[in-house]
User: What shape does this take?
Amino acid sequence: MADHDEQRLQPQDLGYDPNFVPDSVKSFVVHLYRQIREKNVYEIHQLYEASFQTLSERHFKDTPWPSVDAVAQYVDNDHVFCLLYREMWFRHLYARLTPTLRQRIDSWDNYCSLFQVVLHGVVNMQLPNQWLWDMVDEFVYQFQSFCQYRAKMKNKTEQEIALLRQFDQAWNVFGVLNFLQALVEKSAIIQILEQEKEGLEQFTANDGYDYNGGSNVLKVLGYFSMVGLLRVHCLLGDYDTGLKCLQPIDISQPGVFNIVIGCHITTIYHYGFANLMLRRYVEAIREFNKILLYIFKTKVYHQKSPQYEQILKKNEQMYALLAICLSLCPQSKLVDETVNSQLREKYGEKMSRMQRYDDEAFAMYDELFSYACPKFITPSAPSFEEPLVNYNQDAYRLQLKLFLYEAKQQQLLSGLRTFLKVYSTISLAKLASYMEVDEPTLRTILLTYKHKTHAVDSAGKVISNADVNFFIDDDTIHVVESKPPKRFKG
Amino acid sequence: MGRETAKAQQGTAYTVEQLVAFNRYNPDILPDLENYVNDQVSSQTYSLESNLCLLRLYQFEPEKMSSQIVARILVKALMAMPAPDFSLCLFLIPERQMEEQFKTLIVLSHYLETGRFRQFWDEAAKSRHIVEAVPGFEQAIQDYAIHVLSLTYQRIPRTVLAEAINIEGLALDKFLEHQVANSGWVIEKSQGRGQLIVLPRDEYNDPILKKNTADSVPFEHIAHILNNLS
Assistant: This one.
């Protein structure tokens, strides 16, 4: 979730010694190792979230933590602990510094080892959900970061190019997707969630924890990987598959996904965005409304957490997406009053401009979409042929173009709505003259309105999103309230 | 098509769906998915999931992309309207892989999305080589046209209908006879202005029938009725 794309000082400039282990760090790893062995989830969480942050602030503001080799001796050289330590080590690096290509490759290797250990089912730990979510979240983030990095070929050194050629498996899109998929499958999480509906499993009731002496790691990683897959597919522009990956999780019910705030927000953000691109605006509006209200009420509790900044950022982005949805699909009854007033404050003026459908309107759609959209990626391997170019914007430009294309197709509908709200019946000829188009064109506008406001869901059912509706009888338009007025009954 | 062929195709379809379900991110299934596209074309079946899977593999390994297969996928997606399948496919085709024949299909999609059926049929006539390669294309678009018209009109002038489905004269008479017999259409004579076709009422073109619950007429239901064309 974090956003670390600016260049920063390299650690060697600041006198970093990977082998120096301050006492506080020695104490930290010893405690963490012990708590993990004793499966004290609460203590692990405290160390993982609070102590790690404090020590980072105090000793490692601009440098990495001590190398894993330096700390291994304090933790019996435990293989799994070292993998976990390295995962935190790299996450810290990405947050505070800019990783080198070599470091990116090494981080990939660490994830491979860590996931393979988990997939082999030999892990016997209970880890806090926050940590397990952070692992999946960071894994996808580093993949996204790598694709962005790789797509900027222009200024790559010969050394970097050689490394890229040699380690073409690192952060390969097939590898990333297959790991996430393997975690989902090996954990049997989909079957567990199914059985839960019949009362045969206690996964959600136990917050994902195992109270039978076993481990929660594979199951919960499998669960969070479904959200990870949704996110990766959105980055690739494959919204339909992304939503399919999320399907086993019922987001209308409380579940493990909303225990960790970062997971909750990431899930709904991508769910809403995917629905927006699939033109299921009402669904997107509903979910954005719910989570924006939730964030409004609960953000005060997260002020001290390391996720706070990200929560605020995603909050702003979802308001922008909500503004887009409501401009394309006006709905008066789906948005809570609190959310609505926030929306008016942030985007009221822009929304009225977007509903005008002139050039300025499209500049607004462009601006909001670009601000709020995911950081789309190009998954294919780079071309090493001269001249080397930067193509890191290509994926984003494609999605933006297709989105604006859709918005343009709805160009005249806003004008039509205005008239439909004023008249109960009107002849085609008259409306055509008011809208300054000829009759055949008006007929196409009316058909477009009907087509765009009647979405087809994944089961083939037609659902009307129209806030104002009509039907045509020969050459007269009859406007219909969205709820049947009483005088038509009986 | 003989029964044997149909059976073999059924066997293939079952295997491919399974392939996609269990090997979603496996580059080795690419040839199977390509064959399946050709099967869909010749047997007039359709699988969005499998086609998206293939487009995704092309996105991951662009050197393996087959323009002909992509064009066929796009045509099949057009035929799935009003579903947004065509856009879903476009999201997965990078600009660098864009080709002239895809652009033509994008223009056709644009006309259909904006109810411009006359322009659509004119343009389709110019691109016969692309659209005639896929059996059932004309009928699928006519089904879509009737779907949108049915959402919109209670009574529609014959000329408007004719333009939308690209059928005229005697052929249109025959078509209307069929719809009257099988789909509850009624033909009225309007004073001096030609026939008016009365379409069946449902919650989309009739306020009295609109309910507040989520009861809606499945599109397949309408399409099934309309499939009894000559």
User: Anything to note?
Assistant: Chain A is about 60% helix and 5% strand. The two ends of chain A are 57 Å apart (CA to CA).
